[in-house]
Amino acid sequence: MSVDAVYLAMDVEPRMLAQAVRGFRALNILGFNVTIPHKIKIMKYLDSLDRTATTIGAVNTVVNRDGRLFGYNTDGTGALEALRKSGLDPKGKRIVLIGAGGAARAIAFTLAEIAQRMVIVNRTISKARMLAREVQKTTQSPVIYRGLNSSILKDELLTSDLLVNATSIGMNPRVSETPIDTSLLRTDLDVFDIVYSPVETTLLKETMKVGAKSVNGLTMLVNQGAQSFELWTGLKAPTFTMTAALNNALKVSSR
Predict the structure, then answer these.
(1) pLDDT tens digits, one per residue of 21-68
(2) Domains of the chain, with CATH numbers?
(3) Across the strands, what pairs with 122?
C-alpha cells in the first residue's frame, strides 16, 4: 500500500499499561490495536472515545492525531460486516449469542440494535445478566439472558434465526468441542462462529452438513482489522491481501 509503516506485536504486562501508552505518545506512533486484557483499562489513558467505544465500554483500536489518542472499537462492526458480506443480514432476526466476554460484548451491543430479539447465554449466568441489562438499557432493544445448558439451548434455538458463538469453544487445540449439541442445528438456523483457528470449526462443519448458512471467524478478524487500518491511514484496506495472509499464517501455525 506504499505506507511507510510496520505493524508489530508487543506484549504489555497489565501493570505496565500506563507506561506503554506514554511511550507510544513519545514515539509518535501512528496507532495501535489493543487486545485482552487491556480493552477496558486502556480507556482511562486516552484523550477521546468514539461513541461506539463508549457504548460498548471497550477499545480495540487507538489512533494518534497530533499527540492526542482517540479510542475506537471495530469488533462489533467487524462482526456485522462479516455477516452482511456473507449474505446473513441480522436485521430483524432472533439471535442467540453464546458468551459474555469482550468479543461477545461488542457483538451484543452492535447486533441488538437491529435484531428483533436477542438472548445472551453464558455458563456464568451473572455475567450474562449484567451484559443483557447493559445492552437493553443502552439500545432499548429486547435482550434477555439465560444460563448455558442443553435444555435452555434447545428451547431458545427452536425459535431463533441466528446462532453466534462468541466464545473460544472449538478453538485449537480443542477442535472437537462445540458450544451446543449439534443435533439442535437445522437448515433455517444460520451460524456465526468467531473462532478462526481452525477456520472451519466442528460447529461450522456440522452446520454445513444440515445445509444451513455459516460464517467463520476469519471474516470478522479481517473486517475489524481492515477498519483499524483505515482509521490509521485513511486508505481503503486491502481485505483480499489480508485474508490471504491470514490463511497462510494459519496454515503455517497448524503444521
Answers:
(1) 999 999 999 999 998 889 989 999 999 999 999 989 889 999 999 999
(2) 14-73 (3.40.50.10860), 76-218 (3.40.50.720)
(3) 147
